[in-house]
Amino acid sequence: MTNKIEAVGDNLKKSRKKTYPKDTIAAFAIRCEIGLSTYKKMEAGDLSVGLNYYYMAAVLLGHTSGFDDLFKEQDDWFND
């Protein structure tokens, strides 16, 4: 499981650098209204960070569509 959350942290870092190339980690944390230590944990894939903080970053980076599908049940045409 930790490999998946680490991938989220890596993707977050790459997206931050692509979308806001001139921002430091500290500057992007301020943009997200998140403390620097919390944001650093996010990029490290720390499981102690609340999902709401990831959502705040996703809003700024334009990646909120994935959150809409989180936990969404798939249609099952045969068992409904």
Topology record:
Blueprint (H helix, E strand, L loop, with lengths): L1 H18 L5 H8 L3 H9 L6 H11 L3 H4 L12
Helix pairs in contact: 1-3, 2-3
Keywords for this structure?
80 residues, mainly alpha, 434 Repressor (Amino-terminal Domain), 5 helices
Describe the structure.
The protein has 80 residues and is mostly helical. It has one domain: 434 Repressor (Amino-terminal Domain). The protein has 5 helices and no strands. Helix 2 crosses helix 3 (36-44). The radius of gyration is 15 Å and the shape is elongated. The mean pLDDT is 90.
Number of domains: 1
Q: Judging from the principal axes of the Cα atoms, what is the shape?
A: elongated
Share in β-strands: under 5%
Structural class: mainly alpha
Task: Describe this structure in a few short sentences.
With 80 residues, this protein is an all-alpha fold. It has helices at 2-19, 25-32, 36-44, 51-61, 65-68.
